[in-house]
Design a protein that fits this description.
Elements: E1 2-6, H1 12-21, E2 27-31, H2 46-52, E3 55-57, H3 60-65, E4 70-73, H4 80-89, E5 94-97, H5 104-117, E6 121-124, H6 131-141, E7 148-157, H7 170-173, H8 177-192, E8 198-206, E9 219-226, E10 231-235, E11 248-256, E12 260-264, E13 269-274, E14 279-284, H9 289-299, E15 309-310, H10 311-330
Parallel strand pairs: 1-2, 1-4, 2-3, 4-5, 5-6, 7-10
Antiparallel strand pairs: 6-15, 7-11, 8-9, 9-10, 11-12, 13-14
Helix pairs in contact: 4-5, 5-10, 8-10
Length: 339
């Protein structure tokens, strides 16, 4: 199987190259020609492919001429659309980095292009492959918690601009922390609630954190009311200290009529302290969620197992983000666009 990774703008690109290169029977090619908007000092292009020991194409044309069986798009959010549409035109299944796009209009065009071409469009939401989330979903589906009344979620991370400046440049990212970190939990709830849809979104944002560095919002709290009556709150802030030894995390509390369920998607780790380094340390022992997602995308989910988020699901979460920004600007709840 041939898999091409298009653009290394997103920090996950290097991870995908490394994981794919270790999969038996997978040939990997990287291509990252559009580095014009990279900040000084950011490692991009051939150097990233060389570090992962994978082949490199100087242009996207060369990458598609190679004949990939699947492509993974890791460009800046605002550049997702042309690459996804190019994949659709070549009839190649595509996994697009989250969020689906920088705007709902772009997301709708991407979904339409892939549908018209009969091409699979998936969105990279690896947290849905967490064993902790699987346990929560199973308990809710079995009725063990009763009717879900409320959900409290937090997807906090470190300020990402040291690795990639574009995350805080709305022209390329579509926003700031609200765009970056609302979508993971919104995707989990889209999967957890199945037929229930978001009917109202209220959000507050600010950039009190790192106000001297960026103009985009660095903190946010989003409340989403669903058609089943459940109310969810999502802390999407870039509030994790830069000096911390981990990047951040994702936690979810689901409050039901009969039970409360709690999960931490990334805490399958042994925690300790390094006297030599003078800092905390973590040794993970759980599954690699990115690898589980990639395998499900390339080979399909096993019976009863989690599937990769599709383009329509990615579009629904993007509409929640859009409504969140509209609410933060207006100060009132906003109904997200519906299909």
């Amino acid at each position: 199987m041939k898999v091409a990774v298009l653009s290394f703008a997103h920090v996950h690109a290097a991870t995908y190259l490394r994981l794919l290169s270790r999969m038996p029977g997978v040939d990997v090619l990287g291509s990252d020609p559009e580095t014009d908007l990279a900040a000084p000092g950011e490692v991009r292009g051939r150097a990233v492919a060389d570090a992962a020991r994978v082949a490199y194409a100087d242009t996207y044309e060369e990458a598609f001429a190679w004949g990939p069986d699947a492509v993974i798009v890791c460009s800046e959010n605002a550049r997702h659309r042309p690459l996804v549409e190019r994949a659709a035109a070549h009839g190649v299944p595509v996994l697009c980095e989250k969020p689906l796009a920088a705007t709902v209009e772009d997301g709708e065009a991407m979904v339409a292009a892939c549908r018209a071409a009969g091409v699979r469009l998936a969105v990279a939401h690896p947290v849905r492959f967490s064993p902790a989330y699987a346990a929560v979903k199973a308990a809710v589906a079995a009725g063990e918690a009763g009717r879900v009344l409320a959900v409290s979620g937090a997807n906090n991370g470190a300020m990402p601009t040291r690795a990639r400046r574009w995350f805080a440049e709305p022209a390329l990212s579509g926003g700031g922390a609200l765009m970056d970190h609302t979508v993971h939990i919104a995707d989990l709830l889209d999967d957890l609630f199945a037929e229930a849809t978001p009917v109202e979104v209220y959000a507050q944002t600010n950039n009190l954190l790192y106000a001297d560095e960026v103009a985009a919002e660095t903190s946010g709290l989003v409340s989403v009311t669903y058609s089943n009556g459940a109310v969810a709150t999502i802390d999407c802030s870039w509030s994790h200290p830069r000096s911390h030894h981990s990047w951040g995390g994702l936690e979810l509390t689901v409050v039901g009529e009969r039970a409360t369920l709690e999960m931490d998607a990334f805490d399958q780790k042994v925690h300790g302290f390094s006297e030599r380094e003078g800092t905390g340390t973590e040794v993970p022992f759980g599954p690699d969620l990115d690898e589980l997602m990639l395998r499900a995308f390339l080979y399909g989910a096993q019976e009863g197992a989690m599937t990769v988020a599709d383009g329509e699901g990615g579009l629904r979460t993007l509409r929640v983000v859009e409504a969140g920004y509209a609410s933060a600007r207006s100060g009132v709840p906003v109904a997200p666009r519906q299909d």
